[in-house]
Amino acid sequence: MTDPTEGRLRLTILGGFLGSGKTTWLRHQLHKRAFGRVHVIVNEAAEAPVDDALLTAADQMTLLAGACVCCEARDDLRRTLLSLCDQRSRIADPAQRLENIVLETSGLADPAAILEVIQSDPILARQIVVAEVIVVIDALNARDQMQQEALSRAQVEAADRLILTKTDLAPPDRTAQLRATLQQAAPGAAQSAAVFGSGLELADVAADTQPFALPDLAGQDAAPIAASQLDLGDTPDWTAFTVWLSALLYARGDQIVRVKGVVRTPAGRLLLQAVRRSVQSPEILPPQGGPERSDNEVAVIGRGFTQDQLVASLARFSA
Ligand SMILES: [Zn+2]
Questions:
Q1: If you measure from the C-alpha of residue 33 to the centroid of ligand 1, how many angstroms do you get, rounded to a whole number?
Q2: Would you tell me which of 51, 82, 95, 157 could form a disulfide with 257, CB atoms 3.0–4.6 Å apart?
Q3: Distance CA 216, CA 244 (A)
């Protein structure tokens, strides 16, 4: 097994609409030392004072204020990340090296656009692995936000993990409806709840719970998002698969919101991830880590295609 400290720096992107409770959640995680040796980057679209409690809970912190790092301030983010990679590479003792970066995004950021910043820089793409996209959802206001704001939907769609806040204040039937809607918009994302930063288990949503309607926003493709599972078989042809995936993302990148899976290759078990058109360079996983059962299965989440179409397309490519 490779030494994990020689691996890439792990980046967690913390997203969520304005006022969803990102900072409260993060502060509690930092107090619990959930991210080990961590550097926190806080991005505020407006000029804003730093949260003192957050400052004391993080080992190190950088504030990027005054513009959003998914759009206007992309270069600031790139520079900050490059500088963290550089500092880390100068520390000889792996036990002292930075393990994690948590980027608390502005409430106006699209996590997929931030992934693009990393993928478009050859140094960052080599040195940073995006560990998780966590999106905080305000159970009281998410319905209005998702019905009115394409950005709010984009945040949900990019999530690996959705954390619902204010579930103690929202009527249970409304929370159930929200969760059914989130399941539809982000079928691959795990859902949990947090009240004042502490985690809560969520019961399963009753199967007959109706999601709320999401009106078409500004000509946005309104076809429902579905998760397709591709079984690559016991001995997948990694090269053929990646060529196919690149072609698919090139042709249909607007319709694909997420690709995720673990593929066994001669080089090891590779974690493959893409958000929209942006493919992360595959991370090599420990040989026995994670459930082997799901190896060689790749989830493709998006709209406007069926699982059968994907399977047929891949079969043509591999032939
Ligand atoms: Zn932005």
A1: 28
A2: 157
A3: 31
Superfamily of domain 4-200 in CATH is P-loop containing nucleotide triphosphate hydrolases (3.40.50.300)
Which pTM was predicted?
0.74
Ligand 1 centroid from CA 26, angstroms: 20
| Most confidently modeled range among 1-10, 53-62, 228-237 | 228-237
| Residue 222, pLDDT score | 53
Distance from the alpha carbon of residue 290 to the mean position of ligand 1, in angstroms: 34
- Residue from 129, 136, 226 nearest 186 by CA: 226
CATH number of the domain located at residue range(s) 226-318 in this protein: 3.30.1220.10
Q: Is the pLDDT of residue 132 over 90?
A: yes
The residue ranges of DSSP E strands in the chain, in sequence order, are 9-16, 38-44, 60-65, 100-104, 128-138, 161-165, 190-195, 198-200, 226-231, 256-265, 268-275, 278-285, 297-302
Q: Is the predicted pLDDT of residue 202 greater than 90, yes or no?
A: no
What residue ranges do the domains of the chain occupy?
Answer: 4-200, 226-318
